[in-house]
Protein 1
Amino acid sequence: MAFTHEGWTLYTRDVTLKGGRNQTIYFFSKRTPKSGSPCDKPSNYMVGVNKRTGLPYLKKK
């Protein structure tokens, strides 16, 4: 089940950094992104909301 917060859906994607290391990133989107898949919220994160823009973000507990 995908995690949603006020109309925003949480997605995940694996990216390769310049040094060659792979890393999983999480991002919120209202639309379906070109790449990435819906996911559940990781257990060690909480959701914050940017006061100026209203965009949600993940923050470590």
Protein 2
Amino acid sequence: MKTSAAGFQPCDNAQVAVDGEPPLIVATELTSNASDQGVMVGLLDAVKDRFDAQPERVLADAGYGNERDLLELEARGIDGYVAPGREGNGIWWGWC
């Protein structure tokens, strides 16, 4: 995987889907891609396959913030709460 510090390193990127209270892992994904983009749909599909249901809402960090995944959330009728940017860039975002 390409890393910001040392070029390419042997590593993976783990993704976990968790269901509310109590926290319960409902899906996982392991990729060799440093970016989270494009993984959300696979996690949603895994939840659907295992539980024959889909989440009502998704909370995700900025790494998932791409147009394709956001449009897929809309098409599935899932409320998406995805951070619009990385924390620490001097911009503060609020939810209404």
Protein 3
Amino acid sequence: MTEGKGKEKGMELVIITGLSGAGRSEAVRCFEDMGYFCVDNLPPSFILNLVELFSLPSSKVKKVALVCDVRGMEYFPQLYDVLDELRKKKINYQILFLEASEESIIKRYKETRRRHPLALEGQIIEGIEKEKKTMEDLKGMADMIIDTTGMEISELRNKIRTSFLGHEKQRILKITVISFGYKYGIPLDSDLVMDVRFLPNPHYVNGLRERAGTEKVVKKYILRRKETKVFLKKFCDFLKLLIPYYITEGKTHLVIALGCTGGTHRSVALSEEIAKFLAGMGYDVTLKHRDIEKGE
């Protein structure tokens, strides 16, 4: 992809365009999951206003993805003038152009029973041909062209993530590590649940019962045991193997729940170790102790 066309205070601007039925809707959803501020079917004349707004010092929006295409009808040709203006203002932008074979697009429209925006009174193929001609110059300006013919949604999303995030793609997966007590129920939004009640319970050790798994003395009691060390190594290896596959499939939030009897000691100490491990791998991790105040 081209890095040129200037830079504006680090703001990333991606203009998503291309043929109708080629996957623009999925593309914008992917950018939204990656933390971009997204607007679909934006009239080109509003692009400069948005860029000006997001360039203000008080703005927290640093990544923007806009979909502009022939649905804008008579306003669409204004996009070329807007792109010229962006270049003059030295505002960095990238154009992502999506296309697909005529057969694929026709099949997708048949399946969804939707009308092609340029074939409201004619055949789909007529609208596709007209759109190709309209978009020809814009395609030539694109920084990246993706042909979605025969491509699964997960493949498209992975292609976009890999291209626009590079080595930071793991940051789009938000991981929550949560400790809980089985006596209070398993967290409803859990994706992975691990029962750590196989470990000795500090509740039955004098001096530890009233303490929590966040305290050094309790952690030491739990983590120094051989079975704990073996478990942590194997579970971390398991996560190291598994999580990249979740990312490839397009998952954006993963909840890992570790439970003990009351959610005060064992699950708390181990959750902190797991969260530390995942953060060290570069993932965006949130740690929660749901039942730590309730006691065993």
Protein 4
Amino acid sequence: MSEFDVDLFVIGAGSGGVRAARIAAGHGARVMIAEDDRIGGTCVIRGCVPKKLLVYGSRYADDFEDAGGFGWDLGEPRFDWGRLRDRVEAEVTRLSGLYRRGLELAKTDIVETRATIAGPHKVALASGQTVSAKYILVATGGRPSLEPVVPGGDMAITSDEVFHLPRLPERMVVVGGGYIALEFASVFARFGTKVAVVHRRDNVLRGFDEDLRTRLRDGLLHAGIELKLGLTIERGEKLPDGRRRAYLSDGQTIDADVVLVATGRSPNTKNLGLEEAGVALDEAGAIKVDSFSQSSVPSIYAVGDVTNRINLTPVAIREGHAVADSLFSGRVWSVDRDLIPTAVFTTPEVGTVGLSEHEARALGHPLKIFETSFRPMRATLSGREERVYMKLVVDSFSDRVLGAHMLGHDAAEIIQSLAVAVRMGATKRDFDATMALHPSAAEEFVTMRVPARD
């Protein structure tokens, strides 16, 4: 008989925690998982999934406008926010149920209450019960950050609440210039909301390739989004008619029905008992872990956004899988975090994998840059002012493709496929030798012959 109640206790039933629990249970481990919110975590409940559904909904505005150029007469489209909101919520509920069912089929004990760490091998439940565990995995994700705090900032909402707005706002202020802020700005602009983005830096989407950043900024402006760059909100107030007023650092004011703060997310580690148990945290409050996701306490592991490494759902899932395999299958492995593809679901869409031009130069690579910009075929009849941009960053000595970047329709789908080639070390010669699939936008990645610059 084991000295522990369970072999693995998982705190947090999001993507990473659920994967770890199911894989560990499949290896024969006794597993318990605790969640004090809905099963599914940020991605399923208030992140990637409902956001992408809103993105799909918003893009019908462009499709309806384009249809006339292709011979369709649809009349005057009318958008119903309440109908889309409720259908998205129904899908989220369905997916949460599937996550629960997966845990149940894996014979994992589910505890729907708050759990905190009471020691290297102990977990305290809000019900008063204490559970002993050979290993503890923290997978509590992140939470929206409202930093920096400004007077009147409590009138704002975060990305957690935006999915449940009672009505479509006529005007919205979005604070932030990262992918969450820009995605919601893009979505609501196409729903008909007048959107203003306030961002303290001089351009959007920090950390991405500069050519993508500039072209996305232009695309947002073309969509009618007002960009207030290089500015901050000094304070806010609620007006007698219920609207919000934001006072900007240059003296301007903006009135809006909704102020959405999307300035980032913070690791969800407060009041979990981590520091009392000896688990080291960094200055941002994230759990410090090694390449195998092990914390400073040998029996306690952490995966996903709570570690603030690469905060993407597929990364959390793979980290959880690696921990479960390493602890219970005899196969010890860690996640390779190099060359991870990512996307920004604005309209136009961004997809990218590998090094940006700036990063490659900073690492000392001699470069050839291949790029193209063109009007997509669908825009030739619709008359839409739409451009696609593609870029390859190539090491001119080895000919290896170091990075692939795209802005435009289906960028995420195309870059996901290209990520395989980039990861395998494909050269520009390999791209050139690949036959084009015509007519398609993706063929441009294999037909760029002359470098734009060395």
